[in-house]
Prior knowledge:
It is a single chain. The protein is α+β, with helices and mostly antiparallel strands. The protein has two domains: 29-215, no CATH class; 238-384, Trna Endonuclease, Chain: A, domain 1. Helices cover 51% and strands 10% of the residues. It has 16 helices and five strands. It has helices at residues 29-39, 52-87, 96-99, 104-116, 122-134, 151-157, 163-175, 180-188, 191-197, 201-212, 220-223, 225-231, 243-257, 305-321, 353-363, 367-384, and strands at residues 263-273, 278-287, 292-299, 331-336, 344-347. Strands 1-2-3-4-5 form a five-stranded mixed β-sheet, with helices on both faces. Strand 3, helix 14 (305-321) and strand 4 (331-336) form a beta-alpha-beta unit. Helix 13 (243-257) packs across helix 16 (367-384). The longest helix has 36 residues, at 52-87. The chain is globular, with a radius of gyration of 25 Å.
Amino acid sequence: MQAKPCQRNxxxxxxxxxxxxxxxxxxxxRKRKNEDNETMIDKLTYINxxxxxxxxxxxxxxAKNIACRSINITLVQRNWLLGKRIAEEQLGDQTRxxxxxxxxxxxxxxxxxxxxxxxxxxxxxxxxxxxxQCFPNILDAASPKSxxxxxxHYRILLQVDDAVARQWYENEAAKEVWSTKTLQRNISSQxxxxxxxxxxxxxxxxxxxxxxxxxxxxxxxxxxPVVAEFLGLSTNTDYTESTLEKSILTNLQxxxxxxxxxxxxxxxQQHIRTEKxxxxxxxxxxxxxxxxxxxxxxxxxxxxxxxVGQMDMYVRMYDELxxxxxxxxxxxxxxxSDTDEDIARYxxxxxxxxxxxxxxxLMLPSKEQLREEIERQxxxxxxxxx
Length: 386
């Protein structure tokens, strides 16, 4: 994997950088004090407005915002420092580009993953290097405004090769408080270039704001799986499952385990990250009789071609990243909780249709079995909530 070149300033390589939350370089202390007086975002203050509930809510919300901001600053700093340190590692006369042809980053990724868990695979370390190369001066800024964007924002910005466009998106995202989904949409829709060409930029901006308004989520950072990963916590699946879906999935998991056809449970709401999006697979099993992974995604609305395409992507990723040399191809099942519709759509990579027809179908629950189980769970749910 070759690193895409990013313009960067030449800096001394071998020195220690000291970073503390809220620390300010000498000469900027007065400026920082003025900003602290204006924003008051670095400390909790006592509030008594004679409204107990309002005061308690304000203290809780302020504390939550400070905690999120602290995590974000540390995460951005950590990834930049990791990128800097890895980028400076050289072998004799080899260039940084040649470094990626060696085993150094792969070995480091393996060692860090064994020591600290997820978040340090080769792809992640590569992004940290790119982050350092594309934003070489990000930690030199005195103002806390430098850390208004989260690591996920910066990860999305790394998709933009044009340095001028990347800086424009960075500035706009901070100034307009774009969520990561809004930033991704604007980059994917070429918002910067459309704004350059249009004779009516205000009209384009208003349209963008209307289209992205549903994407602006004030709790986005708390829900972000990267934050849970950074803190060593499990991702909160309550954010990604409705109550009915949760009930159906819980019992569907038991149903398959009790089916007696070789199903072993692997994961629920398994997180998969691509360059542009975070996805969750509802249920993952391994069938030891078929010797393959079985992925299940539940939809509460009519299954679309897009849903099947997404499952195809899951299957492809599982075959590339998880399937062992002796394993059979992964199979995906998209289920529809609206049992008036086609209850199940199967996803298997091209070329494996014969295997599915002759072997897989014998071990999979029939569509009628799935329909009856989902209807039963919907009825139980309805009775419990009447």
